[in-house]
Specification:
alpha/beta, eleven-stranded mixed beta sheet, four-stranded antiparallel beta sheet, 11 helices, 17 strands, globular, disordered C terminus
Length: about 525
């Protein structure tokens, strides 16, 4: 009997040990959780890990970079927010859509077309639980009281603020849930653009009953357009609300049967700049610097939730920004304190210069990325989708993620990253093309402003501006006349990339026609 008992105990212990080993092995082979955090108008020089002269100390984001990989040459696909968001979720350049310049508005229709695969679709189809929490700003198809669905007008102009037509009591006709997200809690556009309501799972949480407006004269750091607002919407609380929602999602889904993906586009530090206690005044610089400190602390809360949930080792965290810092951060005040959000680069949000689109890009994934890794490769925010496809072993079709290159080889420090050419695009539709150290800005006077009129410029610029970023990172010396063959090479590459409908290898694709007849984006039809 005693021997039998010993045998039973031995078998039980062996079975438990086997199960533990199998579970551990399964955990190691499991797809990583993915958290993509997108700041709004945060300059590369605002993080102290990038800027040795920064007067804003960001310990939590610095730690994220130190524990993972810091990219020094990362770029957004546009120097304003809506286009960059489109590129992240689709892996396609924004100017291939009807939105050839500027951004959408709070009542603009959905920019992403029904037949377009998104990164959320891709991950959802491969077993991920997907969530979008934060600032959307890609258009939503609001239900209307008159039932008219005029969603083919991608105008992106202010006469679309027709709030009286919106039926807030009805679910959206098209929202984030139609694009591959299982859960969504969002703000329609920027924090300064009405309607000011939370939308959860494509339904307005509380129907707006009031009108809100704050003018620049009231607060030069925090102002917003007049529009509908619900009683549960407080501008100062929006950033903490989105962070808390994200932490709750992490805790609820950590260790579950499915890996999860969170797309967290923050509404900050974009205007309205609204730091609250205990961050208000903490920087001793200005409200913008306070807001950056607030973001860093809140990111620390997210990172702590990941660690406390026991999923840190196999969670891929990306932190970046949708473009450079905006001018309303008050550059003169920051400069007096010795701080430059654009760091050593010229330009800021909206510009084709580096300060408009070169952004912080930090990635942590302990199972795969070595601590204190640094990559100097040129990457673009459109590369996220191909990276996710690589993670789940999905072969992208010719009409999917046409401008996306997998960053997985860079993250794992292996050969195979294929991007050679990167297209930059300004707020008013001006193109620049980058290959190696060379950057060509083509037809800088051709851009149009948001009203479809020629942008006012202080002085007429040359038709081509060529910079060698290796010797002139501040973009001060135009060398186009000295290197005409390089100008011609990059110009031809730009035209080809536009007309091919893709920058990745594959079958030529069509660009979407513009529904804004006044917009003639450079080279869009030139052969």
């Amino acid at each position: 009997m005693y021997q039998l008992q010993k045998l039973v105990v031995f078998l039980c212990v062996s079975i438990l040990a086997y199960q533990a080993t199998a579970q551990s092995k399964s955990s190691k082979n499991k797809q990583p959780n993915i958290i993509y955090i997108l700041a709004d108008d945060l300059g590369i020089g605002d993080l102290s890990i990038y800027n040795e002269n920064s007067k804003i100390h960001t310990p939590n984001l610095d730690k994220l970079g130190a524990e993972g990989m810091m990219f020094t040459d990362a770029h957004t696909s546009s120097s304003v927010c809506t286009p960059t968001r489109y590129g992240i979720l689709t892996g396609r350049y924004n100017w291939r859509t009807p939105l050839k310049q500027f951004v959408t508005w709070g009542t603009s229709p959905m920019l992403i077309q029904d037949d377009r695969l998104t990164v959320a679709d891709l991950l959802q189809q491969h077993g991920y639980k997907t969530a979008n929490i934060g600032k959307w700003h890609l258009g939503l198809n609001w239900a209307t009281k008159d039932g008219v669905k005029d969603y083919d007008h991608y105008t992106g102009i202010k006469d679309k603020y027709d709030f009286d037509r919106i039926d807030y009591a009805k679910p959206l006709d098209k929202g984030a849930l139609d694009l591959g997200f299982d859960y969504s809690y969002l703000l329609a556009a920027s924090l300064n653009m009405p309607p000011f309501v939370y939308v959860e799972n494509d339904k307005v949480v509380k129907v707006p009953t009031e009108i809100s407006e704050q003018k620049r004269a009231q607060n030069p750091y925090a102002y917003w357009i007049k529009g509908d607002i619900s009683e549960d919407f407080v501008h100062e609380e929006v950033l903490p609300v989105f962070v808390d929602k994200s932490i709750s999602f992490i805790k609820e889904n950590a260790g579950g049967d499915k890996p999860f993906f969170i797309y967290l586009p923050l509404p900050a530090p974009h205007n309205p700049i609204l730091p609250i206690e205990p961050w208000k005044g903490k920087s001793n610089i200005n409200p913008y610097a306070d807001f950056v400190l607030m973001i860093d602390d809140l990111m620390g809360n997210i990172f702590k939730a990941i660690k406390d949930s026991g999923i840190e080792e196999n969670t891929l965290v990306i932190f970046t920004s949708d473009n450079g810092c905006a001018s309303n951060a008050n550059y003169p005040v920051l400069a007096k304190k010795g701080h430059n959000p654009s760091y050593i680069y010229s330009g800021n949000k909206g510009s084709y210069l580096e300060g408009g689109h070169r952004v912080p890009f930090l990635v942590k994934w302990p199972e795969k990325i070595k601590p204190n890794s640094v990559s100097h490769e040129t990457i673009c925010t459109t590369d996220f989708m191909a990276t996710c496809a690589d993670l789940v072993n999905y072969k992208l079709k010719d009409n999917e993620a046409e401008d996306s290159f997998s960053m997985l080889p860079l993250l794992t420090q292996k050969e195979g990253y294929e991007r050679e050419v990167t297209i930059h695009h300004s707020k008013i539709g001006v193109f620049a093309i980058r290959k190696g150290n060379w950057k060509l800005i083509q037809s800088p006077n051709s851009g149009l402003n948001a009203n479809g009129k020629p942008e006012k410029i202080k002085a007429e610029l040359p038709e081509e501006i060529l910079y060698n970023l290796k010797t002139d990172i501040a973009e001060k010396v135009n060398v186009a006349n000295q290197y005409p063959e390089k100008v011609q090479e990059l110009k031809e590459l730009l035209i080809k990339t536009i007309n091919d409908g893709r920058s990745t290898p594959g079958e030529i694709q069509d660009n979407d026609p513009s529904t804004m007849p006044w917009v003639q984006t450079a080279f869009i039809t030139e052969k």
